[in-house]
Amino acid sequence: MYSKSDLKKYSEAVATIKSITRVYEEAAARRIKLIQVSVGKVTEFIGDAADTYINVKFGGVADQKAKGGVQKNILSKSFRPKTKKGVLVLISSRDQYFGNLIPNLFREWKVEMVKTGFDGIILGNTGKRLLDKTDFVPKNLKTLDLDDNNPDWNLVSQVGKEIGIYEKVIIFHGQYKTVLNQVATRADVSETITVGQVQNVKRYLFEANSDSILAFFEEAVINAMLQLKIYESQIARYAARIKILEIGQVAEKMSQVIGDLSRGKRKVRKSLSNKKQLQLYTGVDLWSGG
């Protein structure tokens, strides 16, 4: 039987769990808002770089026309040097507590690795741990640890430079849809920037319109896209954390405590009811005996 002091302890436990859950949820929500600001800045940089890239190309077209000829398909041509075929980048995590998000990403990355035979890069130890549990051995794989909360952006920049030499660059990352829905997705960041992607085309001549300038912008966009996908992965992971806090282990524990609390209250009510009935019957007996 639960005493009143037991019921008080259960009530306090429920309140404490709810309070802790709320703190973690608010912290994750604040972190998401901060990262979204960074996403906006990187997206703006990518847009500006793409605008400049296309304008440099138009400058090259104008320059060639002035010289009596135009290089075929210059507006759709890629100028960065590509010495390797393809690379698949998996953005996983250092921690494991993000529900099914990282395992789903890993499965999609592994399927594509087997299918294409491309080189692989895993960012985050969780991806490496998942790989170690399989019998799959990639031909060429690099694994790097990456802090979930504070990524080493120098390391990210170095990886961005390394993937810039590949003809095909596909990044597997988590994407935020809603707090209750984060999906495993992929992005081909090696596609050539086209005129259709640029909103403000300024048709004027650049003096510096060499292939190396165009290659620089292509590589810069790929590097920035990697940073963007890491930010997007962070948002998805924090959302997954909120989801777990709301409907995962904490919620399950709360349900157990609340269930115990409800059963305890019922037992106390039943005990009080029995006591009242006993007192009533005792009173009847006394009256009868009188």
Q: How would you portray this structure in words?
A:
Helix 1 runs antiparallel to helix 6 and helix 5 (211-247) packs parallel to helix 6. It contains six helices and five strands; from the N terminus they run αβαβαβαββαα. A hairpin with a 2-residue loop joins strand 4 and strand 5 (181-188). It has 290 residues and is of the alpha/beta class. The longest helix is centred in the N-terminal third of the chain and has 63 residues, at 4-66. Strands 3-2-1-4-5 form a five-stranded mixed beta sheet.
* Straight-line N-to-C gap: 36 Å
Let me know the largest β-sheet: 5 strands, mixed
How would you write the strand order of the largest sheet? 3-2-1-4-5
Number of strands: 5
CATH topology of the largest domain: Pyruvate Kinase, Chain: A, domain 1
How would you name the CATH homologous superfamily of the largest domain?
A: ATP synthase, F1 complex, gamma subunit
